[in-house]
């Protein structure tokens, strides 16, 4: 099932239990999976038209009235376009607004460079009082939704819209504020997120064949980042590779490096967009090759890091 | 105390806040004194002893730099003690330059980045309609602020949803920080603009007259669409040194001499 379909199903269940949940769209209700919901609940699934700034502040106003508004649009419009509205009316005012940005990084595919946000987390991470969460698969997102609803305050969901492989078992439990150890290891720590978790697991098969015992940790929440787990793992392995679908500046690599530089300075190598606009269009497989975020690139980064360690 | 006397007292409070500090947004604070006094005394269903009362009427001062005027009126209404006024913008204060809902009792929305407050007010009006609690949502927009595109995004949405519980005001004092609105980027014909966006528009010839403001709000409450009341006001109204400074009164230095002299003149009028 596509992530958007799953989210629409789960949020509908939550809406039936909690009458304060509302969803605001800016003319992307259908692509983001809210087409049917907007027909079923016209008063609570509101389309504000192509006006993202207004959407953010309308949500802030509704939150001040006790509602839990979710605003949803593509990542560039959900973050950089409405950065000031998020900073002032949502985060500074401490409103209980949940922001969903869809198609992060290269997952915008054929929409091209204008839509490929490599900076969305970079924009948001420097704003105080916001939680930044990137789900890995449907199971994790579904499991986290009650925690997201219980968390009172601004929260960003960096959501892949389309079909993802199931990474986690359906019985798996998650803590929104604790990273998830996927595989324990002793040679190197690989911190990964979102669509790059699957790529990391593919890379791990190669690493295992070559006798490299990597510890793989899914950092699903980039802010506040789980410092304890990062320091514990890096302290054990002595080397770190970060893997993200975002600019290596301002995203996961930066967040992890900030923690390590203070608490456990070890060699770090990063896989992600190397501070360029993603001008190429195409399917993700192709884009991963163009921007060097394939399993092969991860294997190479791990080996480079192991050499630095030595 | 009648409304005229209350307005004089509010002006004295504003002078106390800014005069003690020696600097601040005096012009746009003084221009909306009558509006605030009429709203809080004649219209707003609020409880100063329970500032978060559910279903209360709300005010979003989108031109957030008019905080000093809002505090002067909230203090008069009994939201907090008068001693707070002398703490404006001083360390540890609950009264910052720009309105902050998490710091000041009675402030319904955090504002300061222009264009956003009015948009929040539209969200609040929508929320009140969903809750069916019958509240009125008031919002004050600066005339210079009307140059922000977000104002018009919000206007479209308010009109689309027929939010007749939204009563907005433009503080049409013709000035913005750098000069006259019509010299910098003209906003006229403002009434036609709001009409074309689907608003019920009322123009008040003297926006610094309590009776004229009051009458306009009474008319707005009967509307079937959101209302914009354009108040022709004077920036710095009622304090000579501020009025005569023109556009420079947006935020100006206030010497002790100016402050005390102005205070004396206002006391003479009481």
Give a concise summary.
The complex is a heterodimer of chains A (310) and B (270). Chain A has 310 residues and is of the alpha/beta class. Helices cover 40% and strands 19% of the residues of chain A.
SSE map:
The complex is a heterodimer of chains A (310) and B (270).
Chain A: H1 3-17, E1 21-25, H2 35-40, E2 45-47, H3 52-63, E3 68-74, H4 75-78, H5 83-92, E4 98-102, H6 120-125, E5 131-133, H7 138-150, E6 155-159, E7 180-183, E8 188-192, H8 196-209, E9 214-218, E10 221-223, H9 227-237, E11 240-247, H10 252-263, E12 268-273, H11 284-290, H12 295-309
Parallel strand pairs in A: 1-2, 1-3, 3-4, 4-6, 5-6, 8-9, 8-11, 11-12
Antiparallel strand pairs in A: 5-10, 7-9
Chain B: H1 3-21, E1 23-24, H2 27-30, H3 33-43, E2 58-61, H4 67-77, H5 116-131, E3 137-142, H6 149-160, E4 166-172, E5 175-176, E6 179-180, H7 181-184, H8 190-196, E7 200-204, H9 210-220, E8 227-232, H10 240-244, E9 252-253, H11 256-269
Parallel strand pairs in B: 2-3, 3-4, 4-8, 7-8
Antiparallel strand pairs in B: 1-9, 5-6
Helix pairs in contact in B: 1-3, 1-4, 1-11, 3-4, 3-9, 5-6
Describe this structure in words.
By secondary structure, chain A is an alpha/beta fold. In chain A, 40% of the residues lie in helices and 19% in strands. Chain A contains twelve helices and twelve strands. A seven-stranded mixed sheet of chain A has the order 2-1-3-4-6-5-10, sandwiched between helices. In chain A, β1 (21-25), α2 and β2 (45-47) form a beta-alpha-beta unit. Chain A is globular. By secondary structure, chain B is of the alpha/beta class. Helices cover 42% and strands 13% of the residues of chain B. Chain B is built from eleven helices and nine strands. A five-stranded parallel sheet of chain B has the order 2-3-4-8-7, sandwiched between helices. Chain B has a two-stranded antiparallel sheet with strand order 1-9. In chain B, strands 5-6 form a two-stranded antiparallel sheet. In chain B, α1 (3-21) crosses α4. The longest helix of chain B has 19 residues, at 3-21.
């Amino acid at each position: 099932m596509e992530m958007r379909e799953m989210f629409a199903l789960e949020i509908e269940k939550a809406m039936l239990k909690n009458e304060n949940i509302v969803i605001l769209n800016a003319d992307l209700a259908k692509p983001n999976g809210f087409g049917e919901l907007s027909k079923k609940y016209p008063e609570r699934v509101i389309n504000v038209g192509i006006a993202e700034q207004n959407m953010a502040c309308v949500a802030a106003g509704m939150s001040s009235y006790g509602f839990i508004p979710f605003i949803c649009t593509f990542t560039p419009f959900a973050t950089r376009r409405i950065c000031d509205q998020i900073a002032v009316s949502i985060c500074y005012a401490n409103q209980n607004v949940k922001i969903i940005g869809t198609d992060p990084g290269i997952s915008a595919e054929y929409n091209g460079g204008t839509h490929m946000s490599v900076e969305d987390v970079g924009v948001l991470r420097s704003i105080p009082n916001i939680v930044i969460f990137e789900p890995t698969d449907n199971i994790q997102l579904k499991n986290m939704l009650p925690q997201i609803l219980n968390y009172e305050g601004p929260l960003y969901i960096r959501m892949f819209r389309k079909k993802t492989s199931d990474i986690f078992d359906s019985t798996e439990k998650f803590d929104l504020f604790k990273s998830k150890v996927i595989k324990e290891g002793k040679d190197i720590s690989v911190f990964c997120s979102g669509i790059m978790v699957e790529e990391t697991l593919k890379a791990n098969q190669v690493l295992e064949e070559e006798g490299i015992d990597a510890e793989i940790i899914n950092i699903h929440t980039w802010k506040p980042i789980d410092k304890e787990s990062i320091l514990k793992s890096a302290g054990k392995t002595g080397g770190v590779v970060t893997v993200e679908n975002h600019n290596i500046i301002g995203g996961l690599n930066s967040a992890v490096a900030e923690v390590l530089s203070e608490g456990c300075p070890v060699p770090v190598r990063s896989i992600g967009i190397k501070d360029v606009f993603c001008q190429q269009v195409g399917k993700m497989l192709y884009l991963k090759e163009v921007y060097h975020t394939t399993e092969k690139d991860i294997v190479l980064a791990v080996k480079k890091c192991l050499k630095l360690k030595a | 105390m009648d409304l005229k006397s209350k307005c004089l007292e509010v002006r004295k409070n504003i002078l106390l806040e800014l005069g003690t500090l020696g600097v601040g947004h005096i012009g746009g604070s003084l221009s909306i004194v009558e509006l605030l006094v009429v709203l809080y005394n004649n219209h707003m269903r609020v409880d100063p002893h329970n500032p978060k009362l559910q279903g209360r009427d709300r005010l979003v001062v989108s031109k957030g730099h008019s905080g000093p005027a809002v505090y002067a009126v909230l203090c008069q209404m009994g939201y907090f003690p008068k001693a707070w006024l002398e703490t404006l913008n001083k360390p540890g204060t609950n009264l910052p330059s720009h309105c902050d809902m998490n710091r000041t009792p009675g402030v319904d929305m955090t504002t300061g980045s222009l264009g956003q407050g009015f948009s929040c007010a539209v969200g609040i009006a929508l929320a009140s309609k969903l809750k069916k609690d019958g509240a009125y949502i008031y919002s004050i927009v600066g005339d210079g602020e009307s140059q922000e595109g977000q104002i018009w995004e919000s206007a479209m949405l308010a009109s689309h949803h027929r939010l007749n519980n939204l009563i907005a005001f433009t503080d049409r004092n013709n000035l913005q920080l750098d000069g006259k609105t019509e010299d910098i980027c003209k906003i006229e014909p403002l009434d036609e603009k709001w009409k074309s966006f689907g608003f019920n528009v009322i123009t008040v010839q003297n926006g610094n007259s309590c009776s004229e403001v009051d009458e306009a709000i009474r008319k707005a409450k009967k509307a079937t669409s959101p209302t914009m009341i354009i108040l022709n006001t004077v920036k710095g109204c009622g304090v000579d040194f501020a009025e005569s400074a023109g556009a420079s009164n947006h935020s100006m230095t206030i010497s002790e001499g100016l402050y005390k002299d102005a205070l004396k003149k206002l006391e003479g009028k009481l």
